[in-house]
Amino acid sequence: MTLDTLPQFLAAIESLGELVRIDRPVRTHLEIAEIADRVMKSPGGGPALLFTQPVQDDGRVSPIPVAIQNAPQYIGVGLSDDALLALRRNHPNFVLLKGEGSALEIARTIEALGGEVPVFNGRGGLELPDVLRAGCAGLIPAPEAFDVLLAVHAAMARGDEAEADRIYAGILPLIVFLMQSIDQFLCYGKRLTARRLGLGEVHDRAPAQAPTALGLACMERWGQALRPFPAG
Is residue 231 part of a domain? Predict the structure, then answer.
């Protein structure tokens, strides 16, 4: 479901119990990040937070730059292209969009925004070469295979699309496996990241999806070409 105004979006997620308004002054330097980090680490990931009075250290209201992640396919509600454009024109501190959509959807959004906001994509790297062809400014990658995705981006940037497609073909089965759902992405993506970082056992916070023997085997099979991250 996509909505046409920001107030509609806020009302929709608030009606679902997925929004908490914080109406007291909160400092943009470290304090907002600390609160958000604490909430995201709560069981279930916590609700969205709306800080209505972000302030600088001297108490002045802060024109804090804002990046928006618009993901209606993953969370069930989001902003329409017209709403994103109106948001940008009413709030110039909206400076970046992370659009979680297919290459065709992203191309439509980029056209609708008319270059007013740079659009990045996510989705774990799904369709990366094609979203770059569609006009994305780049990708905000997940950590488990960011080095490979950066190599794809670099090849596209220098005009070597054939090389970008070749590199991407090698990582695509893993991305497809991980992106079957957000729960699956979190469950196995963080385990693959931990393996590449040389970390120990991964602990899940309830009610997170638990790994299975089949899932771990799929993760290792499709991720076997990913070597440990270099130290330092």
Answer: yes
Q: What is the mean pLDDT of residues 165-189?
A: 95
Beta strand 48-51 pairing with 26-27: unpaired
The amino acid occupying position 115 is G
Strand segments (E) across the chain: 2-3, 19-22, 26-27, 48-51, 54-55, 66-70, 78-79, 94-99, 119-121, 138-139
Contact in structure between 86 and 58 (CB atoms under 8 Å):
no
Q: How many domains does the chain have?
A: 1
The residue segments making up the domain with residue 177 are: 144-232
Q: Which helix (H) or strand (E) holds 181?
A: none
Residue corresponding to tokens 């108490």: 59
Query: pLDDT tens digits for 52-73?
Result: 888 988 888 887 788 888 888 7
Q: What does the pLDDT read at residue 61?
A: 83
